């Protein structure tokens, strides 16, 4: 499972079979995104964190190995776009020690939120300005002390949670924090389960696989849409549908 989340403008969820490199290039090209609008974002995996000059967050525990986008033999990694990326070993060790007891499915989902919200107290180790890497919309959330306490308390409980309880609590937490997030649950009883969070509204789309596979573009509401690219389903969650205008050309 891969979850791609931008600076709360649009979000994409897709399966590992989709070519991430081509998708990113297509999306950035079609949307004509201005580079100065976005800050640095990070590629978070279970094994490393790489700063990337692209308006996306990519979460997947095997993304680097699966798509061979990075050479991680040295401290500096170069991806196919020619961007320089620095691997922070301390962060790698921190993630591993923090989540080693979790299964990969839950790990893939929780690392993103934890780092986005709780990253602030660890930035001194990495010697970079927090604002250059974390979107201001996220900064404003975890700078609230009460939010930090909620996050820390919540994640201490995760290892004891069942998957069902984890998901239930995860949804509740996201709604409380009023964040935008997308979770692709995947196949469950022969159905695709998609959770989309838009402001305080929780969207749940459940479709039979055969029905969903026939969709070219399925509109959830005025602010969200589901697209079909090849055999993969892509869910677009955005606050302004105009931002995804043009994605239909990719299909």
Automatic annotation (TrEMBL):
Coiled-coil ranges from the UniProt annotation: none
Domain FERM central: 86-178
Origin: domain of life: Eukaryota
Pfam families named in the record: FERM_M
InterPro entries in alphabetical order: FERM/acyl-CoA-bd_prot_sf, FERM_2, FERM_central
Protein name: FERM/acyl-CoA-binding protein superfamily
Source species: Hexamita inflata
């Amino acid at each position: 499972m891969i979850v791609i989340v931008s600076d709360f403008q649009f979000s994409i969820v897709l399966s590992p079979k989709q070519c991430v490199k081509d998708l990113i290039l297509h999306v950035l090209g079609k949307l004509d995104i201005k580079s100065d609008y976005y800050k640095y974002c990070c590629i978070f995996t279970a094994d490393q964190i790489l700063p990337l000059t692209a308006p996306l967050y990519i979460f997947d525990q095997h993304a680097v190995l699966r798509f061979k986008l990075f050479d991680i033999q040295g401290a500096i990694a170069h991806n196919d776009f020619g961007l320089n990326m620095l691997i922070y070993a301390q962060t790698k060790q921190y993630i591993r020690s923090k989540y080693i007891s979790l299964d990969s499915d839950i790990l893939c989902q929780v690392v993103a939120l934890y780092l986005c919200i709780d990253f602030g107290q660890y930035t001194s180790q990495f010697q970079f300005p927090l604002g250059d890497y974390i979107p201001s919309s996220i900064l404003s959330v975890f700078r609230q002390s009460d939010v930090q306490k909620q996050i820390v308390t919540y994640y201490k409980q995760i290892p004891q949670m069942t998957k069902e309880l984890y998901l239930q609590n995860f949804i509740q937490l996201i709604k409380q924090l009023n964040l935008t997030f997308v979770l692709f649950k995947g196949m469950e009883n022969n159905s695709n389960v998609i959770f989309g969070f838009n402001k305080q509204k929780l969207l749940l789309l459940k479709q039979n696989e055969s029905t969903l596979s026939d969709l070219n573009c399925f509109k959830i509401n005025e602010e969200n849409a589901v697209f079909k690219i090849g055999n993969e389903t892509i869910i677009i969650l955005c606050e302004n549908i105009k931002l995804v205008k043009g994605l239909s050309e990719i299909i």
